[in-house]
Amino acid sequence: MRRLYVETYGCQMNVADTDLIFGLLGRDGFVMTKSPEDADVMLVNTCAVRDNAEQRIYGRVGELKRHKRKGDVLGVVGCMAQRLGADLLNRIPHVDLVVGPDGYRALPELIHRATAGERSVDVDFKSWEHYEDVPPAQDGRASAFVTVQRGCNYRCTFCIVPMTRGPERSRKLIDVIREVEQLVSTGVTEVTLLGQTVNSYHNGTHDFADLLRAVGGVDGIRRVRFTSPHPNDFTPAVLEAMADVPGVCEHVHLPMQSGSSRVLKRMLRRYDRDGYIDCVERLRVAMPEIAITTDIIVGFPGETEEDFLETESLVRTVRFDGAFTFKYSVRDGTPAVKIKDHVADDVAGERLERLIATVRQVARTKNVGLVGSTHEVLVEKQARRGELLQSRTRTNKVVLIEGLPTLIGSYLHVRLNGTTGSTFTGTSTAARRELAVVG
Ligand code: 5AD
Fold first, then answer.
1. Residues of the chain with pLDDT under 70
2. Which of 132, 184, 364, 419 is exposed most, by the fewest CB atoms within 10 A?
3. CATH no. for residue 419?
């Protein structure tokens, strides 16, 4: 019996891809292990989106060398593997395999060869590859990711993803539905549809609106989420489907990147400040309770103090529920490499600090306003802290509640009692009652 250890970095699609790898290699007789010490094969599923992600991975791959016994295999897969290809083999002598996101089907064969001492690289794009026949790994949780689209056809000038994940292609609607039905049969009630610009999904005559309606219509599905959409792909039909389909949750992660039209243009985001505001307004008309989170980059080449202030002001205008904030990181091979006027690192760092403070303040004000209200939550897991359980509202707010672990996977109504500014504590009468009976 061969044991497989996989460590995952980066986005949700990488998490889903790791499940795919487990599915593929499980079929080949591998069993999963949670510790690299007793693994025969160690894979690191990587991210290339920023340099610090890659530096961390170099460090980690260096550490994993310790656990590599004779005959063991160590592979780097995912976006960094795709970006660096054979270079990575040259740079790290103890790495046996370098496989990009379209090459996982070859893993059993390449691992076999690596065991015999042959190092290999597979970074070819396969635009047809959806891993349609690979059974998704199931771990009994109520929530699952479903990849509906791979690759990206946008060309945002800062972004490496088109170079690491290749051109956009969508799965057939019928195949997605089959997978969702299969997940339901294992106890899944919430799905998150994944794609780089997920709402540009289209296959044959079906668009993302059709997909939302079809997934929301699967018996047993209570919640439908999706990530990440592009502002330009919220067509009237998609907004209508979001409003109509009861399962579609009131949350959208809508990457804004910058609040300055000048910077957005240089980023080739294909919308300007007003276009972004317009998208937010249309989302709020379609779903009045919708929570909106975002991604923001500071220090993009040419960003002036004035541009940055526009970003801060857009955060206040939109009143985001939360944001991931990043300092711009130059990626070789992206169009932005050629843009002059680099922002000094200390200036970018200082802007990032100010932005984080603004985002926190805006989110806190919103969240404080929610204390006292009641929400449906899905109980996800035991919280890291103490005896509490972690649950999530439809608006994607994390709520810690008291209750027995047997509640994991169930839906409850909770009253929000307090907030740290970002997460909540809440109570569910039903969960309390059960605790009292046991207690
Ligand atoms: N530098 C900094 N942040 C980046 N992102 C993508 N590329 C870069 C880069 N070169 C951020 C964007 C994107 C998120 C996933 O990562 O905000 O939405």
1. 439
2. 132
3. 2.40.50.140
Please tell me if the CB atom of residue 159 comes closer than 6 angstroms to any atom of ligand 1.
yes
Which atom of ligand 1 is the closest one to the Cα of 324? 17
Q: Which residue's CA is the nearest one to ligand 1's atom 7?
A: 159
> What pLDDT, on the 0 to 100 scale, is given for residue 387?
87
**CATH of residue 63:** 3.40.50.2300
pLDDT digits (tens, 9 = 90+) for 153-169: 999 999 999 999 999 99
Ligand 1 pocket residue status of 329, Cβ below 6 Å: yes
Please name the residue whose Cα sits nearest to atom 12 of ligand 1: 295
344 and 395, same domain (yes or no): no
Is 49 near ligand 1, meaning CB less than 6 Å away?
yes
Distance 229 CA to ligand 1 centre (A): 14
145 lines ligand 1 (CB under 6 A): no
**With 0-12 CB in 10 A as exposed, 13-18 as middle and 19+ as buried, what is 338?**
exposed
Residue 320 sits at φ, ψ, to 5 deg, of: -60, 145
Give the predicted TM-score (pTM) of the model: 0.97
pLDDT digits (tens, 9 = 90+) for 180-194: 999 999 999 999 999
Strand ranges, E, within 280-404: 291-298, 322-327, 374-382, 389-393, 398-401
In this structure, the answer to whether residues 356 and 393 fall within a common structural domain is: no
- d(CA 378, ligand 1 centre) in Å: 30
